[in-house]
Amino acid sequence: MAGMTCPLCHQPSTWKGNPWRPFCSERCQVTDLGTWAAEHYRIPGPTLTMDTSLSDSLERDDDTEEQQNH
Ligand SMILES: [Zn+2]
After folding, report:
1. How far away, in angstroms, is 7 Cα from ligand 1 center?
2. Torsion sign over Cα 12, 16, 17, 21
């Protein structure tokens, strides 16, 4: 088994089960591809706040009681 080293950070990296080979990590692979790719990965997460204002309590005054007095 030949020891593999990351071409970027020169740290020992594993080949088996390594999706970022020959790099040691995704970060090294992205950095090697270029900063543009790195920025591509850094997607600004939109702060999606689940506003519960939509589910406003719609108070329906349905007071229609059918009273059948027979
Ligand atoms: Zn590396």
Report:
1. 7
2. positive
Q: Report CA-CA distances (Å) from 55 to 20, 49, 51, 63.
A: 45, 14, 8, 22
pTM of the model: 0.44
Domain locations in the chain as residue ranges: 4-41
Q: How many CA atoms lie within 13 A of 41 on its CB side?
A: 11
**15-37 tens-digit pLDDT:** 889 999 889 999 888 888 775 55
- DSSP β-bridge partners for residue 4: 13
- How many A from CA of 54 to the centre of ligand 1? 47
Report the separation in Å between the CA atom of 38 and the middle of ligand 1, taken as the mean of its atom positions: 14
Neighbours of ion ligand 1 (CB under 5 A): 6, 8-9, 24, 28
